[in-house]
Design brief:
The complex is a heterodimer of chains A (838) and B (609).
Chain A lengths: L1 H19 L32 H4 L5 H10 L14 E5 L2 E2 L17 H4 L2 E5 L13 E5 L9 E9 L5 E8 L7 E12 L9 E13 L4 E9 L2 E4 L4 E2 H7 L8 E4 L2 E4 L2 E5 L2 E9 L4 E21 L14 H6 L3 H13 L1 H4 L1 E2 H8 L3 E4 L10 E4 L3 E22 L4 E22 L6 E2 L26 E2 L4 E22 L3 E18 L12 E2 L3 E15 L4 E12 L3 H4 L16 E13 L3 E23 L4 E24 L4 E14 L4 E6 L2 E10 L11 E13 L3 E14 L9 H4 L9 H5 L3 E2 L2 E14 L3 E10 L8 E5 L15 E4 L4 E9 L1
Chain B lengths: L1 H16 L18 E3 L1 H11 L2 E2 L4 E9 L9 E5 L4 E6 L10 E5 L4 E5 L2 E7 L1 H4 E5 L7 E3 L1 H5 L7 E9 L15 E8 L4 E7 L13 E11 L2 E6 L5 E5 L18 E3 L16 E6 L5 E5 L2 E7 L8 E6 L3 E3 L5 E9 L10 E6 L13 E2 L15 E2 L3 E2 L5 E11 L6 E10 L16 E3 L16 E6 L5 E4 L7 E6 L6 E7 L3 E2 L6 E10 L10 E6 L13 E3 L14 E2 L3 E2 L6 E11 L7 E11 L1
Parallel strand pairs in B: 1-3, 5-8, 10-11, 13-15
Antiparallel strand pairs in B: 2-7, 3-4, 3-6, 4-5, 6-9, 7-8, 11-12, 11-14, 12-13, 14-15, 14-16, 17-29, 18-21, 19-20, 20-29, 21-28, 22-28, 23-26, 23-27, 23-29, 24-25, 24-28, 30-42, 31-34, 32-33, 33-42, 34-41, 35-41, 36-39, 36-40, 36-42, 37-38, 37-41
Classes of the chains: A mainly beta (838), B mainly beta (609).
Chain lengths: 838, 609
């Protein structure tokens, strides 16, 4: 014990030292071994990450687990699917967000000791927990009575997105009284993570109690949450990386009064309470019924400004390349020097924002629509706004499993899901000003009056808002889903097969809480109720040739309702859904060969999945129009095909090797139709514009991955291992508008620039080396103490681009005017974990 | 267990000691020094003395913002004005200032320069150089004239021009075309002095239409290469609600009145605005006026809203004043319509008369509507409709006749006008009375009940009193019309003549005339017949008194006939005459003497038997 404590204190001191080291070499977040992941997109600026690779690590399938902890940082996704296609469940409760279908890791961040007990089924599978998607089902079991009696404490040190982690978990196991209790609490923090300007401040808590009421019923109540506040990192254009000499340049932070302050802080706390009844209906049939309430706040801040210069340091007109473009080489040279040396210039200049806000004396007439109510004060030119998505979701779920006999099992279930997301933004910080005027800063003006069209809310025009006030937009996303599934599973000596079906009804509508000045008739109140009926069918056969060789094939056909997030052309300002809103159709098949011997486990799979009629939407700010522009494509078809190979072999009792190879091709197979709208104008900028996307890669992830690993397990409870990894065939996701007739209109036939507009950039391949190891000791036959250390990207390759995107604004005559933004893989990072268990 | 508790305690400490500090102090705000205080005119003088230079010491100027960027008409720019002068500031960033802001501009780093000859403050950094001291301190625009601006006065100041209008060719166009960054439109006073109004295509009112009326404009006086250029702040400051100044013909001097008018537009050029000496062709709304039109050999005047893109088109074609001392002048003309698009009660053509129009005072003259026969919606395209004789007896003095066209791009009916004659009689048409007839059949069906008989070629004239032969309908609504003359309730003596056109007997064989007559309320009983049929061989077509009239005696209604009973005359042989003759039907009555018989005539036929 004492020994342990002393090691502990030494580690603490080391942590202090680490915290002060130079943090200029950084990367995106990465997974760690053995049990969790953290990823942070920063790529398409999603507030939360939908990378579920952390959960995948627990899979026993070598391909899937490698995908989890090795390929995750390179943004690899199994079979190219995003998490919309994977059902993530915790004790039967669906964790996929209804507005987008994605599962956000931040909901369970830090609760690794709980989430590690999961069953990951990849691809089209048979499951007792639901129908699943083409990507499979991950079911986390957090039922208190399934935890054995244990007390676990761990402390980790790292240089990734956080630097310290403490976790404490206590579970009683099933006590003689029939009670069981699990409690886990964790804390992760960093004053600054791998990337400059990023801070991390997160907690996780889990409390579960279960009481066996009778031989048939056991009632469980679990409460968990993962509140977190983090400063985010963003990606930039290559020019910014070159000038700063830093591939992890983060444009979101700057100095305020000498301290680093990040303008993009995300904060979430969305706890979930679940009451479950585990009901043994008979010897053969059991059911799991639950009711859960998932609620809380979530949001992410950002800078907003009016009548002022763009405060973002990497705005394209602040780069030397802009001055070169306009022929001002003297300024280009000056600003090159500023970018190379001056943090006030290349990062957010908070002091300047406060200064500007101290001077904008402004009179607003008829405040709140009251004639004569004129208010004069310091109007903020710059603010920090918090874009929020608070939710309130009730689920009722039931899963039934019945073993008809030794061979046949029937699974069925239902799920009722009532979701209401309140999406709005509020003032987070006025940055020294006295108020913010709530009008559309892009609406055309007149010196003597504010046009009605500029009002965010005609019900309360000319509103002055302060910290904590809602402004700009305010609406609810209401989504109700009811679904049921059924499956029959057959197990015989030589053959296993199953077939299943699901039916679901989804309806959603928008409720506006503000009457937008541009769209007074279509923004306030309940909007149109969009309703969809969907179904799915699946089936699979496994032929067991002998105990060692298996051949498996699966087929799935399903339709899926469009997601709320993609359905509206400009959801913040009006209730208009995209034309031809319809359900997606997905059909998929896979064929595998598996080998199971004591020495070797291997699997090879080929898969084919076609998505039809997806909807794709993005928003970006268009300068010439002075407005946010929404780009929506419908009729997007994608084809994901490929091969997965995973081999694990024990060369000797101590040495094991693994090899994993994935080859995929994820392409668009249709010519979708685009609609482009302006947030603040009813005019359509374009309608029914054909996008020639056929055979372009979806991009954003490596399509070819490989990993070779060797591991030595020594008899005295220590191990060491090395992985060599390869990522290739990654393409940058395209800007669809570049692939239209309109984009090429200004270029004559055969012009050399056409290929530049149409080309899809292939990202360079990369290779990394990972080293990991650990040792554990058993003390007094009761306690286990151990440590693990993992080093990722041992060779410190800081030049590997993991992803990025083409900017949505472009100039076909000079395609390099708005170059793509790239994100780089973190350099050498470590994760050192010390644990104590009893 | 104790170890466990110790352990828990230690770990709890660790949990809470881990702090992530995220609270931020407000940074100190630096003051902007004041330095030497200048006025704008001093700065202008400094520039005039030493040319462009950058101020390198602490200095400031106090002023009020008179134009900001919120309308989009200017960009990265603002106009400021102090007690004595005004100047344009070229800003480094956009936004942050509003009209009415009372500001102090910190001048260190500011460059005094000019742009195309207009003095400006350049390199002004909004954030670091401007302090807003107060808001809503609006500067009152100064009343100036276009001539003042053309003399390069009031540069950069906020001014108001009264009694101005946009030049004809620019009315109805947009303030700023989208194809170019800015567009100039000409603003003029009533003397024709013009100044440019320049609007950026980014202005919120760029696509609004330039108004056609006259009124007042508030603007900032910019300058470009020595010429003034007005910048509008807001469309609400362009208030045009009066009729335009005199434009087209007439030019400011009263027109000499004429004795008669006889216009067939023979000199009109196709598609060219009518311009006839003494006539006025005025655009009251919109940019179109009456134009000449040539079709084969026919020339006439036309006004049309078709394809004009005008929301409102109104144009007046006004004759010179015609001397009408006795009130005996008569107007007649012909008009036609094509593609009637006017709806409801809207009329494209109205004819008016004025006795106080002198050629210069259109806006203030009194205009009274007349009721000639005009083409209607149901008529045939391009079919000429004779106006009938419109008596100008009510317009004693010098009378001008105006033909007013009102329409638009949607109410785009075309109206044609020709053969406008204002004369003491209604004889003949354009070209003088040289034409003869050899037959006619008059049943008065084209007449309007209760209106004076007006038939082309016939003369309907009162030689004593004011009454003429009138059309009457009996039964009412039956469509059956006849001509009647009566002194009943005329309070005067009446004598009126209805005279046929010149009849060419030599071109006829067995010339015969026949008609029906009818009487009613023969008074006084036993009194003489009010009616007589007379023939003249030397009538000149105009002067009844100087011609020799011989009475003939066909069968006509007499006192003993029943009232309201038509008495046919039978065929009346005219072979005892030869050459060219006129036949007159004369009525004589006197209300003052009780001679108030009503006498009627219908179905007057002339034929070769």
């Amino acid at each position: 014990m004492k020994r342990f404590l002393s090691i502990f204190i030494i580690l603490l001191m080391i942590q202090q030292v680490w915290a002060q080291t130079d943090t200029t070499t950084v990367s995106n977040e990465q997974t760690e071994i053995p049990t969790f992941t953290l990823s942070e997109t920063g790529l398409n600026d999603e507030s939360q990450s939908q990378d579920v690779s952390g959960l995948l690590q627990a899979s026993r399938d070598i391909f899937v687990s490698t995908a989890g902890y090795v390929f995750g940082p390179a943004r690899f996704r199994v079979r190219g699917y995003d998490s919309q296609n994977i059902s993530v469940l915790m004790d039967g409760v669906s964790l996929n967000d209804p507005t987008s279908g994605r599962a956000y890791w931040s909901s369970w961040g830090g609760l690794n000791d709980i989430t590690r007990y999961n069953v990951v089924q990849n691809g089209i599978v048979s499951s007792e927990f639901g129908f699943g998607g083409v990507g499979g089902i991950t079911e986390i079991t957090a039922r208190p009575s399934t935890f054995r009696k244990q007390l676990k404490f761990s402390y980790s040190l790292s240089n990734r997105s956080y630097r310290n982690r403490l976790m404490l978990t206590y579970s009683t196991g099933v006590l003689p009284s029939g009670w069981s209790l699990v409690a886990s609490v964790s804390r992760r923090w960093a004053q600054e993570g791998y990337v400059a300007g990023t801070f991390y401040d997160a907690w996780g808590y889990f409390l579960g109690v279960e009481k066996k009421l009778s031989k048939r019923h056991s009632l469980a109540l679990t409460i968990f949450g993962a509140p977190s506040t983090r400063g985010k990192s963003g990606i930039a254009v290559q020019e910014a990386y070159n000038l700063t000499g830093n591939n992890y340049y983060n444009p979101y932070w700057g100095y305020q009064n000498g301290k680093k302050r990040n303008s993009r802080v995300s904060s979430y706390h969305q706890p979930m309470i679940t009451l479950s009844d585990y009901w043994k209906i008979s010897d053969k049939t059991k059911a799991q019924l639950s009711v859960s309430y998932w609620f809380g706040k979530g949001g992410s801040t950002a800078l907003n400004w009016v009548e002022a210069n763009d405060p973002r340091p990497d705005y394209y007109r602040y780069l030397p390349s802009w001055y070169n473009l306009i022929g001002d080489s003297a300024s280009a040279e000056y600003y090159t020097n500023q970018w190379e040396t001056n943090d006030s210039y290349r990062q957010v200049n908070w002091d300047a924002l406060y200064f500007a806000n101290s001077k904008f004396l402004y009179t607003v007439k008829n405040v709140d629509g009251i004639k004569g109510n004129d208010v004069t004060g310091l109007r903020s030119k710059y603010i920090i706004e918090d874009r929020r998505n608070d939710k309130s979701q009730i689920q009722a779920n039931g899963d039934f499993t019945s073993d008809l006999n030794d061979h046949i099992a029937i699974h069925s279930g239902f799920n009722l899901n009532f979701y209401k997301g309140h999406q709005y933004k509020e003032i987070n910080d006025l940055l020294g000003g006295q108020y913010w005027l709530d009008i559309d800063k892009y609406a055309s003006g007149d010196p003597f009056k504010i046009p009605a069209a500029a009002q965010s809310d005609l019900n309360r025009p000319n509103r002055l808002v302060k910290k904590g006030d809602i402004f700009g937009y305010d609406y609810d996303a209401n989504i109700n889903m009811q679904s049921a599934f059924g499956e029959a599973e057959f197990t015989y000596r030589k053959l296993d097969f199953y077939f299943g079906a699901t039916i679901s009804h989804t309806n959603f509508w928008r409720t506006g809480n503000m009457r937008n000045g541009h769209f007074p008739l279509h923004s306030y109140g309940d909007g149109h109720n969009n309703s969809f009926l969907n179904f799915g069918l699946k089936g699979g056969i496994t032929y067991k040739a002998n105990g060692r060789n298996y051949i498996r094939g699966n087929l799935m056909y399903m339709t899926r309702a469009p997601y709320f997030r993609d359905a509206y052309i400009s959801v913040r300002t009006r209730d208009f859904t995209v034309d031809n809103l319809k359900s997606e159709t997905i059909y998929s098949g896979d064929l595998s060969y598996l080998l199971r011997t004591p020495a070797v486990k291997a699997r090879i799979t080929v898969y084919y999945t076609q998505f039809k009629d997806k909807t794709w939407s993005r928003s970006f700010y268009h300068e010439a129009l002075n407005s946010f522009v929404n780009y929506i494509m419908t009729g997007v078809d994608e084809l994901n095909t490929g091969l997965e190979l995973g081999i694990e072999a024990n060369l000797s009792p101590t040495i094991s090797v693994s090899g994993v190879f994935g080859y995929g091709q994820y392409v668009y197979t249709s010519r979708p139709v685009a609609t482009i709208t302006q947030d603040n104008d009813a005019r359509l900028l374009a309608k029914d514009r054909k996008v020639y996307l056929k055979n372009y890669y979806v991009g954003g992830m490596p399509q070819t991955v490989a990993s070779l690993g060797i591991r030595y397990n020594a008899p005295k409870y220590w191990f060491i291992g090395l992985n060599g990894n390869y990522f290739g065939n990654a393409y940058l996701p395209v800007n669809p508008d570049r692939h239209t007739k309109e984009a090429l209109e200004s270029l004559p036939d055969g012009d050399y620039r056409i290929s530049g507009v149409l080309a899809q950039e292939k990202l360079p391949d990369g290779m990394t080396l990972d080293l990991f190891g650990g040792k554990s000791w058993r003390i007094e036959h009761k306690y286990t103490v151990g440590f693990t250390l993992s080093l990722s990207n041992l060779l410190n390759d800081t030049n590997h681009i993991t992803g990025g995107y083409e900017q949505l604004r472009y100039d076909p005559q000079n395609i390099n005017k708005f170059p793509p933004k790239y994100g780089y893989l973190y350099g050498r990072t470590f994760f050192f974990n010390v644990y104590f268990r009893m | 267990m104790k170890k466990l508790v110790l352990f828990f305690a230690a770990s709890m400490l660790l949990f809470f000691s881990a702090c992530v500090k995220q609270d931020f102090d407000t940074p100190p705000i630096k003051d902007i020094p004041v330095g030497t205080i200048y006025t704008i005119s001093q700065l202008r003088q400094m520039y005039a003395d030493s040319g462009a230079y950058q101020i390198n010491k602490d200095a400031s100027v106090y002023a009020v913002v008179t134009m900001d960027e919120s309308s989009g008409n200017i960009y990265k720019s603002a106009y400021i004005q102090d007690a004595g002068d005004a100047v344009n500031m070229h800003l480094k960033q956009t936004g942050g200032l509003r009209v009415g802001d009372s500001i102090r501009v910190y001048l260190k780093g500011v460059v005094l320069s000019d742009y195309a000859g207009m003095f400006q403050l350049d390199n002004v950094n909004n954030d670091s150089s401007i302090v807003i001291l107060a808001t809503q301190k609006f500067v009152t625009p100064k009343d100036v004239s276009v001539e003042d601006l053309l003399a390069n006065k009031y540069q950069a100041q906020l001014v108001k021009l009264n009694n101005v209008q946009f030049a004809d060719p620019d009315t109805g166009k947009v303030f700023a075309e989208t194809s170019t960054s800015a567009t100039n439109r000409k603003l003029e006073d009533c003397s024709g002095n013009q100044v440019d109004v320049r609007t950026s295509s980014y202005a919120t009112f760029a696509s609004a239409k330039v108004p056609a009326k006259r009124g007042s404009v508030v603007a900032i006086v910019g300058a470009f290469n020595g010429s003034p250029q007005l910048y509008l702040r807001s469309l609400s400051e362009v208030v045009m609600d009066s009729a335009r100044c005199q434009s087209g013909g007439g030019g400011g001097n009263p027109i000499t009145p004429v004795d008669s008018v006889n216009e067939n537009f023979a000199n009109a050029q196709n598609y060219t605005d009518i311009e006839i000496d003494g006539w006025s062709n005025i655009k009251v709304a919109g940019s179109r006026a009456w134009q000449g039109k040539v079709h084969n050999t026919d020339t006439y005047a036309q006004a049309s809203g078709y394809n004009s893109k005008l929301n409102d088109m109104e144009t007046w074609l006004i004759t010179p004043p015609v001397i009408n001392t006795n009130g005996d002048k008569v107007l007649h003309f012909k008009s036609a319509m094509a593609y009637w698009k006017h709806t409801g009660n809207d009329k494209p053509l109205t004819v008016l008369a004025s006795t106080d129009f002198d050629g210069t005072n259109f806006a203030t003259a009194t205009w009274t509507e007349l009721s000639p026969t005009l083409p209607t919606a149901g008529g045939t395209n391009y079919a000429w409709v004779k106006s009938g004789d419109v008596s100008l007896a009510n317009f004693v003095g010098n009378v001008s006749i105006a033909f007013k066209y009102k329409g638009s791009d949607t109410e785009s009916t075309s109206i044609q006008l020709d053969d406008i004659v204002i004369n003491a009689n209604s004889g003949g048409g354009g070209g003088g009375g040289g034409s003869t007839v050899t037959s006619f059949d008059i049943d008065f069906s084209g007449q309007t009940a209760y209106k004076d008989i007006s038939i082309a070629g016939w003369l309907n004239k009162a030689t004593i009193g004011k009454r003429n032969w009138q059309a009457k309908e009996y039964p009412t609504g039956s469509g059956k019309l006849y001509a009647q003359a009566t002194s009943y309730k005329s309070t005067e003596e009446n004598e009126c003549w209805l005279i046929t056109p010149k009849i060419d007997l030599d071109a006829m064989t067995n010339p015969t005339i026949s008609f029906d007559t009818e009487k009613a309320y023969w008074l006084p009983k036993g009194g003489a017949s009010p009616f007589a049929v007379l023939v003249s061989t030397d009538f000149d077509g105009t002067n009844i008194a100087s011609a020799t009239w011989t009475e003939i005696h066909p069968k006509v209604a007499v006192e003993s006939d029943a009232d309201n009973t038509w008495i046919p005359s039978g065929d009346v042989d005219l072979s005892s005459y030869s050459g060219k003759i006129y036949i007159a039907f004369r009525y004589h009555g006197d209300d003052t003497k009780g001679e108030t018989t009503s006498y009627r005539i219908d179905n007057i036929k002339l034929f070769s038997k």
